[in-house]
Design brief:
about 400 residues; alpha/beta; Aspartate Aminotransferase, domain 1; Aspartate Aminotransferase, domain 2; seven-stranded mixed β-sheet; four-stranded mixed β-sheet; 15 helices; 14 strands; about 45% helix; globular; binds pyridoxal-5'-phosphate
Length: about 400
């Protein structure tokens, strides 16, 4: 075997040895939140989704997609650098800027690319900038800050304002600084202390960068996000988001001041050297964004279901992680093999699909099941989930004892 393949095989073997090898369940959504396992034809209920409002499977989206294909075809004309911007791209950017109370916006193919591309571009452009990042920030943020030599990165403990302030105190007032954090952390369901972070940023002359990936659509007026819900979106300098979660499609964006957006548009490799989002997709995103601007129905139903499920989990003494203050409800397991066993037990015995979350997505020893409910889950679905979880924890147990 060639040395390269030997090295790759060695890495995979190591993952398997640690129990961290990732097996992806083959699963086809049929009638969301119901799905079919093609290997067994079994119908299961999905309890691990980021399509938080079920919009990706709603009949309005399905109708608009066939109309959009008819009107715009499926492809795009190239990168925006070469093929230009369609009026739909411009309209979506204007819409997202307005939603987040900002001067301008820029579209990316994914939310990952928006974080990674923007942060690495800023690191390149502002040479001596210090990036101060929450320790639980997403891989796309971590990667964006990793790519540049000379980029100074400091990590503050999750949601720890004292630690953040200690770090800020060590940096010269005039040195450019950016504080980077998320509004809703998708593995814990915790939420950021946005108001306090803004206060510190102002006091220490820093700008703020907020990832609202798990909050747009779900919180705020018309789905404008968690900072908007707190009335603070106007005070955040850069807001990043995705169309792949609550908006039910795919794609990402940043919003901010005109100069920031123009700089990223002009220098960001992830933006310049890639094919633009097909106008067909942009038209569906626009339809979904506008729909969620005017409809509260999905958000209200989601919150009712979240409260209902949260109370049931607590009532049945299931180990709901108490950090959760959002629609994401993680159940603590604390050991990699048990978290996989519980997920497999639920799938095999109860037709419940829930994802076990392991390292490196979370720290070792904090493995968990990541549960997210949607407006489309019924009371029967909730009862069935609780029944299955109670049985699984009794059989497999928190400590692996039967
Ligand atoms: C906090 C956070 N930011 C960014 C992303 C990337 O977004 P996308 O899935 O649109 O690439 C994710 C993906 O799950 C995420 O959890």
């Amino acid at each position: 075997m060639n040395i390269i393949y030997q090295k790759l095989q060695g890495e995979i073997n190591q993952l398997k040895l640690n129990g961290n090898y990732r097996d992806f369940t083959q699963i086809d959504v049929v009638d969301f939140p119901q799905a079919k396992l093609p290997t067994s034809d079994k119908v299961v209920t999905i309890w691990s989704t980021t399509d938080y409002l079920g919009l990706g499977h709603n009949s309005m989206t399905k109708t608009s997609i066939s109309k959009a294909v008819e009107q715009y075809g499926t492809g795009t004309v190239g990168s925006r650098n070469i093929g230009g911007s369609s009026s739909l791209h411009i309209k979506l950017e204007e819409t997202m800027a307005e939603i987040h109370n900002k001067e301008a916006a820029l579209l990316f193919s994914t939310g990952y690319g928006a974080n990674d591309g923007t942060l690495s571009c800023l690191a390149q452009l502002i040479g001596d900038c210090v990036f101060i990042s929450d320790e639980k920030n997403h891989a796309s943020i971590i990667n964006g800050l990793r790519q540049r030599a000379g980029c100074i990165k400091k990590i503050f403990k999750h949601n720890d304002l004292c630690h953040l302030e200690q770090i800020l105190q060590t940096i010269d007032y005039e040195t450019p600084k950016l504080i980077i954090f998320e509004s809703v952390y998708s593995m814990d369901g915790s939420v950021a202390k946005i108001e306090e972070i803004i206060k510190l940023a102002k006091q220490y002359n820093a700008l703020t960068y907020l990832d609202e990936v798990h909050a747009v659509g779900v919180y705020g007026a018309g789905g404008a996000g968690y900072a908007n819900e707190l009335g603070l979106d106007g005070q955040i300098d850069i807001i990043q988001g995705t169309f792949a979660k609550s908006y039910g499609v795919v794609g990402g964006y940043i919003t901010g001041s005109r100069v920031l957006i123009d700089a990223v548009r002009s220098f960001c490799s992830n933006f310049i050297f890639t094919t633009s989002m097909p106008p067909m997709l942009v038209s569906i995103i626009l339809a979904n964004v506008n729909y969620l601007k005017s409809s509260n129905k999905e958000r209200i139903l989601l919150q009712q279901n979240v409260n209902n499920l949260r109370q049931n989990l607590l009532k049945h003494k299931l180990p709901l992680m108490l950090e959760s203050a959002s629609h994401i409800l993680p159940i603590f397991v604390g050991e990699i093999n048990r978290s996989k066993q519980i997920a497999a037990y639920l799938l095999n015995n109860y037709n419940i699909y829930v994802q076990a979350i392991n390292y490196p997505s979370v720290e070792k020893g904090t493995e968990r099941l990541r549960i997210s409910i949607t407006p489309l889950h019924s009371q029967d679905d909730i009862n069935h989930l609780i029944y299955g979880l109670v049985d699984a924890f009794a059989k497999i147990g928190l400590n692996g004892s039967n």
